[in-house]
Amino acid sequence: MNRIIALLKMSIRILLRNKGFLFFLFATPVLSTMVLSIQSGYSIVGEDGSGVEQIIELSDCDERAIYKSDNSRFVVKVYDGAKTELSEYTLNKLAATGMYSVCRCDVSQITDEEIMEQAKKDAFDDKTGTILYLKDDFDKAVSEGNYEAAVLLFTTSDDERYELFVEDLKNSLATVNRVVELVSGDTTQTITILNDMDNSIPDKTIVNVGGKGQRALTDKQFSQKQNMGYAFAIITLGFLFCGVCVAHTVIEEQNNKVYTRVMLSQVSKWEYLFSKFIITVAMAVGQTVVTGVSILFILKDIDFGMSRLSFLFIIFCLGIIFGTISFVMGILIGDVMSSNFAAFIIWNLSALLSGLYFPIDGTTMALKTMSAVMPHRWFMDVVEMVFIGDGKAYSMVLCVTAAYLIITICLGCVGLKLKENEA
Description:
Layout lengths: L1 H15 L2 H18 L19 E2 L16 E7 L4 H12 L3 E7 L5 H14 L4 E5 L3 H6 L3 H4 E5 L5 H22 L4 H13 L7 E2 L8 E2 H37 L2 H7 L4 H30 L9 H26 L2 H18 L11 H7 L3 H13 L5 H30 L1
Parallel strand pairs: 1-3, 2-3, 2-4
Antiparallel strand pairs: 4-5, 6-7
Helix pairs in contact: 1-11, 2-9, 2-11, 3-7, 7-8, 9-11, 9-12, 9-13, 9-15, 11-12, 12-13, 12-15, 12-16, 15-16
């Protein structure tokens, strides 16, 4: 134990003289905390913090819905040929769920043949989940329960959320039909009753659903998750390069024959590597502490979706994983410059393939499979679980951390053994 303590003191003195290590130790936690303080404005937010969804108006049918919509949601381009109060209510009902980006253009002056041609064009030129055509006799058809005569759907993608959209559309039309029959076709009274029904629903929650089997998040939580992804990307850069700095001490000690002298002092190789691993863990603790202090000053009254302790615990586990990965990788590479490049590549790939910058739910199966290998992906799942109050989140983060540490350390041991055999 005394030998390990002596090695720790030696390594700490070397690291504290490294300006790059100190920069990543202090700067990246502060920057990541500042990212969490950013209030996203991608959706309209009410005073109570709830999302207020609205129909997105397009200037004409040629304007692309994908440019004005939230592409994390199921994009619905609407050809509105009805322009009535009932059609307006139906579209607002769909938009209010928060699951769909409803983009509407006026087609009241366009013939059915022209609409068919426009739909074929949009199927190729615009990236939408579906195209919904509200016909000019929408009110009459809905009041008679003839939904096929009221609307026409064009399938433009194989998105699994299409089935959910169809079901919500049917439910909305059925609700309108029942109220119309109740008031004998009085449109004004129908709208009044429908609005009263909506207002009588307690604790109405707007949710975002990224696909089948995914967790439901409110608009505010979705925004907070995006910021959390950016914060993870920034602080992970610090973890990786701090880990590389620890690996640099090993490389320098080998080059300067310090490692040889340490081995001659009856210190085993595994004691030496264990002392470096403890430094990596201490580095994660240090950055977590800096993050905690930053939160006290930067995020005083800002709600970023979870408790401070939960966030710091997740950051600590993330730091151990990436610090160990870069430390082991740096030792195996054995070159300072090459390990720096490798750390940067790992940071880029993990952040991009894990969905930290943009959603990957609509990507190919190959990319989704690659994403499952990246640690960030699992930690973003943990964030969602914490947001919705899933008690299994903390056990999951512990299991993920343990799994990545075991795999990384085992691969590192095998790599060191192969290097020794080659030497």
